[in-house]
Amino acid sequence: MGPKKKDEKELNPEQEMKRKFKAKCRFRALGRMVMANTYWLIEAAEQYEGVEDVKRRVAQAVRGKTKKKRLLSITDKALLNKPAAERTDLEKKYIFRIIGGLKCFKRYPNHVKKKLAAVTYFKYYGPDRVIVRQHQEAHALYFIVTGDVIVSHLVYDDLLQQNVSVDIGIMHAGDMFGEVSLLHNILRTATCTTAGHCELLILMKEDFKNVLQASVQRQWDEVKNAMSAFNYFDGLDEVARREGCIVAKMKSYGVNEIILGDGVGVANFVYFILSGRCQMIESLQVCATTRLGRTTYKLYDPYVEEEESEQDMDKKYFAAYKNLNKSDTTSSSKGSREQRSSVEGPQDNATEQASEEPKRRPSILKTTDKSETRESSASNVLRVTLASNSSEQKRANTKENEFSPLATVQEILPTTDAQRDSMRLSVELKITPPPPNLQTYFMQVCQFNPGSTFGFGENMRDRRIVALTKVDCMMLPKIWLLQRNTANIWTRIEHYLNKKIPTKKQLFKDFVTERRWLEFREQLVEDVLSRSNTVNWTSVHDVPYSIRMEEMIDI
User: What is the per-residue pLDDT for 81?
Assistant: First the structure.
């Protein structure tokens, strides 16, 4: 006994050193954990609810810091960090009430949520932290509570001769990632990095197999069966089908429920009808005017310009040039007249004076000297030369005015009273009020049966798609489909829909023909009845009300 006790005393220092080393490591790990989770642990320090420290309460009231809206409180996060084996039934019920309202768990039924409440853990990651790395083994499933996660994929670059990380998408609060590797027991297919402060709920691999694998597998099988019903997806490989199961959404609609249009529906998603029937309805605004016993209909659409005839186009686009031609012709005629008068006037005066001078010369020669006759002849010559010079200057001035650029600009751009619409977006166009006799009619454009698709970007203005029966749809993102546009199939479907679905003007023509047929039918019945001499004591009230309602309903 003595030597054994001595050996124990000799081993005690080593054991004590090991115990101290373990305690030091635990303390360091605890310190690192506290530093890593300071972002959400500091919430308790910010809000003081005690009574003893009055100065702190006053400072907190004066500061008046606004509270951030948080989905999980610090007590909830502390409870979610507790090991699953140590959670009581009351704590599990409390966690079930908490996670039941989160966006990421709304897709699961209540019995699945109760199981998740017992095994989920809270985890926080700071900015630019890698949560999941590609080609690594999967250990957990992640639900995003707050924050954004960037998904990247390694692609081999032929120019750099190495793998390059390429961002392929961003996941937001309510999304889930990591289920692909757990479900198919493969390595991670992408890298997930935090864009900022992120709070996640983690489900470990063993718990995933026990709780979520059956429900997730059921959802994936449903999407796979839906994709196999359309031959568009026959050319996709297993990886593409797996991605389609991740991004696809399954949704059901009741009778007379709007599927797409009027601000309802998921944007940038393509709808594939699995079961049920739905119809596209368009609203037409029609102005009905009655003249001389005949009703005329006109389509009112402020967003579509009216069709212009050739005369209207001439008036609209070439009226200014016609006015310019008229002004040019009038100005040229006026200039030619003035030019003729200015040229012919001095010459006539000069010739008249020159012809009159010889007649006057005898009388002048009788009374004047030779010198006087020379002076008079010189003055007459000067008058003729001055008149000719003035006419030449006027001709030159008219030529300069005809070929000078300033004159052409003034002639081509005359001042007009017509207003020109501004092309600036800041200028609001005048909205004309609708006519008083405006009526709205709803017409069925087409029907969609099982196997049909819509939502590729076809015209949906004044249109909506309404379910005639209970409709089950599969929705896929349009960008995902365009990335797998085999044989340009999705673009061809879009062109086909735009070509086959009638436009608003075609629907209006059908509306007018149906109205004309109703008027002709009523007039024909009245003519036949007016020619008959038999007495008919029946009235409108003898007809069943249901039949009268069908005749009174507008098309």
Answer: 86
* Cα(305)–Cα(164) distance, integer angstroms: 51
pLDDT of residue 78: 84
145: CB partners within 8 A, 6+ apart:
71, 72, 102, 104, 173, 199, 200, 201
Q: Check residue 277 and give its pLDDT.
A: 95
| Measured distance CA(353)–CA(356) in Å, rounded | 5
488: left (phi over 0), alpha (psi -120 to 50) or beta: left
End-to-end Cα spacing for the chain: 110
Name the 3-class secondary structure at 428: coil
The region of weakest confidence among 146-155, 459-468, 527-536 is 527-536
Residues 463 and 264: beta-carbon distance below 8 Å: no
d(CA 281, CA 463): 6
Phi-psi region of 90 (alpha: psi -120 to 50; beta: other; left: phi over 0): alpha
| CA gap 196, 39 in Å, rounded | 11
Q: What is the pLDDT of residues 200-242, one digit of tens each?
A: 999 999 888 888 888 888 888 899 999 999 999 988 888 888 8
Length reported for the chain: 555
pLDDT-derived band at 323 (thresholds 50, 70, 90) equals: low
Amino acid at 336: S
